[in-house]
Amino acid sequence: MMKKKRFSYMRIPIVYPNPSQFPEWYWIRGLHDACIIGIVEYDINRLKEQKWISNEIIITLDASKALWDTSIQSIVFRNAKLIDDGGFVPGKTWWFGDEIEEENNKYQLTICIDKLKEKGKIIIRFEECVVVRNK
């Protein structure tokens, strides 16, 4: 059994992480205060880039008011499962912080959210991630 790796950007006080500790697609500068516009699941069941993709979960963001990384439009999780939506409310849910665990080349992302003055967590398990940025 492989050891779990944990990556987190919820540190107080803020400690700037070493980029080599994170997966290459990770939003190292953080998405604190990005508004989560939507979470959509798609069944795909096809070969894509020489790998079988059964489904995708896409989180669409308005990162224009995020404290650090304002370039992200959406995050695509491939071969993913939404474990908990945290009571997500479209356009009224803000990204507070996140933590990623890796085990055997599979990931679990826990997004800490603020929604309508309540706290919650969105949890997604996935195999691959693609980050779509503004051009």
Plain-language structure description:
- The chain is globular and about 40 Å long.
- β2 and β3 form a beta hairpin.
- 21% of the residues are buried.
- The chain has no helices and nine strands.
- The chain is 0% helix and 57% strand.
- The protein has one domain (5-133).
Layout of helices and strands:
Blueprint: E1 5-8, E2 35-48, E3 51-62, E4 72-78, E5 81-84, E6 93-103, E7 106-115, E8 118-126, E9 128-133
Antiparallel strand pairs: 1-6, 2-3, 2-6, 3-4, 4-9, 5-8, 6-7, 7-8
**The biggest beta sheet, please?**
9 strands, antiparallel
How many distinct helices? 0
Question: Whole-number average pLDDT?
Answer: 85
DSSP helix fraction: under 10%
Weakly predicted, low-confidence segments: 11-16
Order of helices and strands: EEEEEEEEE
> What overall form do the CA principal axes indicate?
globular
- Count of the separate structural domains: 1
What amount of the residues lies in strands?
Answer: over 45%
- The rounded distance between the terminal residues' Cα atoms is 41 Å
Radius of gyration: 15 Å
Category by helix and strand content:
mainly beta
How many strand segments? 9
A few lines on this structure:
With 135 residues, the chain is mainly β. It contains no helices and nine strands.
Name the descriptors.
57% strand; 135 residues; single chain; mainly beta; 0% helix; nine-stranded antiparallel β-sheet
